[in-house]
Write the structure tokens for this entry.
Amino acid sequence: MIRPILVVGNPVLRQKAKRISQVDKPIQRLIDDMIETMRAAPGVGLAAPQVGVPLRLAVIEVDEKVTVLINPEIIKTIGETELDEGCLSVPGFWGQVTRAERVSVKALDRNGKEQRIRDAEGLFAQALQHEIDHLDGKLYIDRVDSAEHLQRSEPLRKPEVEARRRAQEEAEPA
Ligand SMILES: [Zn+2]
């Protein structure tokens, strides 16, 4: 079942989500709904607070691989990188944020078994950090250092951003 996605302004997005003590049937249903909702959006990841459930649960789909994270914790980060980021709960915007280049995460999987994700990188690393932030009531817009780095539009691919920037520079009188 596709669930409605809450947008910024809703207090649930700002709560610290609670740990899940038992991975039972209702949690399994919630996981299935979240995967369906993420795919329909479409998005790379979705955290339970985004569908109004303040529990420490998130789903990510990168390279056609679904990762279910229950009570996730970042246990190691390496490096720093500037990335363009957007969020299903902040529709119509994107911005540049600083994230760790690589992360290792400890979590339970959808069967309640402990899993370790070691040295994730690229989009997967970014999604892990973004979704775990959601569980602490944080949104990427909190990490954007100034309002001018928050852009109104859908996320663009880097070459398109560069092309647009050049076109703007050329259009503006020096
Ligand atoms: Zn988000």
